[in-house]
Amino acid sequence: MPTTDEIEAKIIQQADIVKKAKQAKMSKEELEPLIQTLLSLKAQLKDEQAKVKPFDRAALEALLTKRFFYAPSFQIYGGIAGLYDYGPPGCAVQTNILNLWRQHFVLEEDMLEVECTNLTPEAVFQASGHVEKFADYKVTDSVTGDIYRADHLVKEVLGKRLEEDRNLKLGLQSDAKKPKGQKPAEPLTEETKAHYEMVLETLDNYQGESLVKLFKDLDIRAPTGNPVTEPVLFNLMFDTQIGPTGQFQGYLRPETAQGHFLNFKKLLESNNEQMPFASASIGKSFRNEISPRQGLLRVREFTMAEIEHYVHPDRKNHDRFDEVENLELPLYSAAAQLAAEGPKMTKIGEAVKNRTVNNETLGYFMARIYLFLIRIGIDADRIRFRQHMANELAHYSSDCWDADIKSSYGWIECVGCADRSAYDLSAHTKKTGEKLIARDTLPEPIVTTKLALEIQKSKFGPVFKKDAKTVQEALLSMEEAEIKEFELKLKDGKASITAADGKSYEITSEMVTIGMKTETINVLEYVPNVIEPSFGIGRIVYSLLEHSYYVREEDEQRGVLKFKPAIAPTKALVIPISNNADFAPHIKSLVQKLRQANVSNKVDNSSSAIGRRYARNDEIGTPFAITIDFQTLKDDTVTLRERDTTKQFRATKDQVVEAIKDLVDEKVEWDALIKKYGEFVGQDA
Ligand SMILES: Nc1ncnc2c1ncn2[C@@H]1O[C@H](COP(=O)(O)OP(=O)(O)OP(=O)(O)O)[C@@H](O)[C@H]1O
């Protein structure tokens, strides 16, 4: 059966044939079969589209609100865009994801966890480049004053124009609403269509003047149809003052990464000076997004889990790469994007070998990210790794892949996995003078003779006083070629040098001696490179909610969240079949056993029918229900029911508690338990 995409392509082709036939003034008899083919293709498309049930986001959202997974913050004050509070099931799902993240990365990869502050002094973000560059362009609707992120607006406007064009060519009505006074859409010429597609592909290239020109050339307007102001840069960091003087500028961090880098020296010491190693951190990040939208997907305060893995710049192999090299990942390389091809399942070993992925460590983490996402319950068919195009890469980065997850909002970046090179550690060394380096002990010492500079402290100290250390560091950090140049300048008796504080200092010839010096080197110093997997937990939580949601058609269209047991907020529901007083001691002893085994549970002894009680718990994804019935009074056995198969088995309380624990820890499969205890067919609904 052809796919909807294939049928659409045929419709566009056939519509073109009909158009040309009409222009050529073909006879009615000749035209008729061509039109019939077009009509039957359209009917075929409609049939195929009807088969694919669109995802009912409104129903999921209603469930999430009803069960308080999350909700807009400050709702009774009218709310603020981009800020959300998590309710009890939302908190539990997030905590369970983070517990698995710790297990999967921090414990299984032996990482060093840090927790650094959110409040950060300005100097840190000056060094990292965030003060200057962590910004997006915004535009303002010149009539309503509404503000839009410039690239999002271009995407939206061109996307709509392309969709309208496609609908026109398919002979379908566009459901995009037209602002007042706007002309009906005309089909785009092939040239215009190609230009729009090229702009969308390379949107990150448009900055400053070229972005202003793009808005003018393409007549990009606000969704109201009003013109917009010229794009201007807007820094996304929240600024604040630290302390009572109001003079110490600070920011709320927009990522956890800088905290790791600033502690690099202590971390390396904690790791017994052994390289390579990784630090990990879970914490809040803050970004003053221009237009927060799409629920948890673009917010202003969110939880991030970040890893910074430090390696030698020339040795980016990974010790455990052999464990993942045969794993196939859906790689959407830059080359495939350019050729308008889709992602391709590729063994990560091959991708590293043929340099599609820059190095083993990057490839290793991509594989571990993929396994983690599947481990928590993300649908493997809705994950892809998209490589950054050359124009998207930061200038210092050699390669970067985003783990995108598909939801009803399209493909969304949920994890970034980048090679940040030595950029951050070098930047902080430059700003503070503190060496953030690692050392290689050489098997044999290297003896070298080269031009070197020595400080004459007695002449130096009295002149520079408190600045002496800064000036000295600037002088001693010079390479041989720079010393040579400096020596030439000193011939006149004095020369100046710029230190890390940005000031220029005058050095006289009696303050230093320059001459050949023999050195024996036992260790080589280097600035480590950093491979960074960076997880946006809110985006992962939302994607997981969508991937877990389904509707039990036969059961009054009740929504179910099919969380894996390890992720589910509550693992077991305890249901007495009626409110007979004899059940009370059994409920008590069962709950005690569950508590002792660390199995989170809820008792529902309401008078609702059993089926209704199951359904209520389906909505928060409770995977197991234990029923206490009259048989329990006789032999202390209970039944255990699984949410998705709705199958049950009967066993003692202890066996059932142990079974749930093993199911949560993924030590046993449900089917194996059904085989072991035999299916129980009896009470339900
Ligand atoms: N505003 C946000 N709301 C929720 N999660 C976010 C937000 N910004 C970033 N993230 C998450 O943090 C991760 C790492 O951040 P990174 O700086 O790489 O994102 P980004 O490239 O700026 O994202 P985008 O291009 O979508 O703004 C992202 O993969 C995403 O999961």
Description:
The protein is α+β, with helices and mostly antiparallel strands and 685 residues long. Among the domains are: 4-51; 135-235, Herpes Virus-1, CATH 3.30.40; 438-526, Signal recognition particle alu RNA binding heterodimer, srp9/1 (2-Layer Sandwich); 570-677, Rossmann fold, CATH 3.40.50.800. It has 24 helices and 28 strands. Strands 3-10-11-21-16-15-14-12-13 form a nine-stranded mixed β-sheet. The protein has a five-stranded mixed β-sheet with strand order 25-24-26-27-28, with helices on both faces. Strand 24 (572-576), helix 20 (584-596) and strand 25 form a beta-alpha-beta unit. Helix 1 (4-23) packs antiparallel against helix 2 (28-51), helix 5 (122-128) crosses helix 15 and helix 7 (150-170) runs antiparallel to helix 8 (190-201). The two termini are 40 Å apart. The structure holds adenosine-5'-triphosphate. Adenosine-5'-triphosphate binds at residues 287, 289, 298-299, 302, 304, 413-416, 534, 536, 538-539.
Number of strands: 28
Low-confidence stretches: none
| Small molecules in complex | adenosine-5'-triphosphate
Helix content: 25-40%
Q: How confident overall, as mean pLDDT? A: 92
CATH fourth-tier homologous superfamily of the domain at 570-677: Anticodon-binding domain
Shape: globular
**Strand arrangement, major sheet:** 3-10-11-21-16-15-14-12-13
- Report Rg: 32 Å
Strand content: 15-25%
User: Largest sheet, if any?
Assistant: 9 strands, mixed
Structural class determined from secondary elements:
alpha+beta
Write down the CATH class of the domain at 570-677. Alpha Beta
Quote the distance from N terminus to C terminus.
40 Å
